[in-house]
């Protein structure tokens, strides 16, 4: 039992939420109606451009005009009549009775839609049904049925509704029982005779019809009538909204669903939506010229408009009362605040003075802390620089003495070769770069050892600043490679690319390219990469 109650509550909440979403969607679609009208007009203009095609035949023009008639029929009746009149003229010039009868049927339908019932009846009576092929005969009964439907709405007489039903019966006898028109008419026929059968057909039609099409709008509108007959009013609203949304998006101005929703909103005392839906429907009627819809909407427009204006007046009255009350309360609050302000003024001055003193003390304290921090950083840097300087001075003297000793040995060797007159060997020795290469290699090795003695974690710290796939992997016997030596020199404070190039015996552009390449491999911000290198610390004792 509890489960059934819970399911029932859940079902009600879901239905209410669905109706709210559909209502919001319909409001948005109405607000954006001008967009859909523009799309419709653009489509019509593209069809009109086809009339300017070179070499267009009269029959080709007829078929294009027929497309324009279908586009304008529920959008702007006067334009639809214009193109039907042109087709009547073309059909007579071509001497094609089929085209003539088709055009007069179209004109009769348009006349009945815009309220020219006498002219519509004359046209329909003038058509000889015995001369009509099956498809036009079906069209004839459909048009006559619509004529009596429009007329019955205009004069509010159910007798004409019975005549409409008589033509529908004739239509049923002719129309293909598998066609959409037949299934749609059948579903509508069973609404008051067999609700289960009607619902079954409507569900089948909804399953095969694409959402949002003009046919979808017609199906959902007719299905809402079945829901109303079954007293399922929430479902009625749902399908009316689906129909109204589809009609509005298709710029169909014969929007019966919107009129029904306006009446429902009025009955529910939702005057804002009732007014909005009514105004949109009136706008459609005025723009399209569909007379029988105008009669329907004008019947209740004045009622809804009067109620809406009265509601607006009540709202303004309530708002005025609220504003007056609020103004009085605000005035009293201002007096209270003024009284409190006067009482607190002296205390506030004392607090301000104390706060100012505290701020000054805090500022001085922060400044002192900052200066101490800077002094500590400077001392640490000086200690590190002094340590590095002492270390490198000692290494410098050691290297210098070593090279002087090597030069003396090399000089003695060359002297012995020269005095023994081994000139070929002397020239060979002087031309050879082996000594220089060996000494450079020894110098770089010594530099690497000295630098790593000062910065033993340099390689790992350097790799930590690179992306995983870009980390430098040294050969087994190597301490540093050329890229690492460039950044080792930078860490020692040698930032001039020219000096670095001289030390590494390469061009300045090579050094620049290496530096750019490494910045692009950085895991950190490339512009901060070299600043991060300078933060790699030394472990020398100070």
From TrEMBL:
<feature type="transmembrane region" description="Helical">
    <location>
        <begin position="322"/>
        <end position="342"/>
    </location>
</feature>
<protein>
    <submittedName>
        <fullName>Regulatory protein SusR</fullName>
    </submittedName>
</protein>
<keyword id="KW-1133">Transmembrane helix</keyword>
<dbReference type="Pfam" id="PF19904">
    <property type="entry name" value="DUF6377"/>
</dbReference>
<feature type="coiled-coil region">
    <location>
        <begin position="354"/>
        <end position="381"/>
    </location>
</feature>
<dbReference type="InterPro" id="IPR045957">
    <property type="entry name" value="DUF6377"/>
</dbReference>
<feature type="domain" description="DUF6377">
    <location>
        <begin position="247"/>
        <end position="501"/>
    </location>
</feature>
<keyword id="KW-0812">Transmembrane</keyword>
<keyword id="KW-0175">Coiled coil</keyword>
<keyword id="KW-0472">Membrane</keyword>
């Amino acid at each position: 039992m509890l489960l059934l109650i819970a399911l029932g509550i859940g079902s009600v909440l879901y239905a209410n939420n669905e109706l709210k979403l559909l209502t919001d969607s319909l409001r948005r679609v109405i607000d954006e109606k001008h967009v859909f009208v523009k799309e419709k007009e653009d489509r019509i203009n593209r069809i009109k451009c086809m009339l300017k095609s070179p070499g267009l035949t009269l029959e080709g023009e007829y078929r294009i005009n027929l497309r324009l008639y279908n586009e304008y029929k529920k959008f702007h009746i006067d334009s639809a009549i214009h193109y039907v009149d042109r087709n009547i003229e073309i059909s007579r010039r071509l001497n094609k009775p089929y085209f003539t009868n088709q055009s007069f049927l179209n004109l009769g339908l348009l006349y009945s839609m815009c309220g020219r019932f006498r002219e519509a009846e004359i046209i329909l009576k003038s058509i000889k049904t015995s001369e009509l092929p099956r498809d036009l005969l079906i069209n004839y009964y459909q048009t006559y049925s619509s004529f009596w439907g429009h007329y019955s709405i205009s004069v509010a007489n159910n007798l004409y509704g019975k005549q409409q039903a008589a033509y529908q019966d004739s239509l049923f006898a002719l129309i293909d029982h598998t066609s959409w028109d037949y299934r749609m008419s059948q579903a509508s026929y069973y609404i008051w005779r067999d609700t289960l059968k009607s619902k079954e057909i409507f569900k089948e039609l909804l399953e095969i019809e694409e959402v949002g099409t003009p046919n979808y709008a017609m199906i959902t509108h007719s299905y809402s009538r079945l829901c109303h007959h079954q007293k399922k009013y929430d479902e009625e609203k749902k399908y009316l909204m689906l129909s109204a949304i589809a009609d509005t998006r298709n710029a169909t101005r014969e929007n019966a669903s919107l009129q029904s929703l306006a009446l429902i909103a009025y009955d529910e005392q939702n005057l804002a939506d009732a007014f909005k839906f009514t105004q949109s429907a009136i706008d459609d009627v005025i723009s399209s010229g569909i007379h029988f819809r105008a009669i329907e909407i004008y019947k209740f427009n004045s009622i809804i408009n009067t109620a809406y204006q009265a509601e607006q007046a009540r709202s303004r009255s309530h708002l005025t009362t609220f504003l007056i009350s609020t103004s009085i309360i605000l005035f009293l609050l201002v007096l209270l605040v003024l009284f409190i302000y006067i009482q607190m003024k002296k205390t506030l001055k004392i607090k301000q003075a104390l706060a100012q003193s505290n701020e000054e003390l805090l500022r001085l304290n922060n400044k002192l802390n900052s200066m101490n921090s800077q002094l500590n950083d400077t001392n640490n840097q000086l200690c590190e620089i002094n340590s590095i300087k002492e270390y490198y001075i000692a290494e410098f003297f050691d290297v210098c003495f070593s090279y002087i000793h090597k030069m003396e040995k090399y000089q003695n060797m060359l002297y012995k070769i020269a005095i023994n007159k081994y000139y070929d060997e002397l020239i060979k020795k002087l031309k050879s770069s082996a000594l220089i290469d060996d000494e450079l290699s020894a110098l770089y090795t010594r530099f690497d050892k000295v630098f790593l003695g000062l910065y033993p974690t340099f390689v790992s710290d350097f790799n930590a600043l690179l992306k995983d796939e870009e980390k430098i992997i040294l050969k087994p016997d190597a301490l540093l490679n050329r890229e690492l030596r460039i950044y080792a020199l930078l860490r020692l404070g040698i930032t001039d690319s020219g000096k670095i190039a001289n030390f590494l015996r390469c061009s300045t552009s090579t050094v620049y390219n290496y530096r750019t390449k490494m910045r692009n491999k950085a895991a950190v911000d490339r512009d901060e990469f070299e600043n991060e290198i300078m933060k790699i610390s030394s472990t020398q004792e100070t």
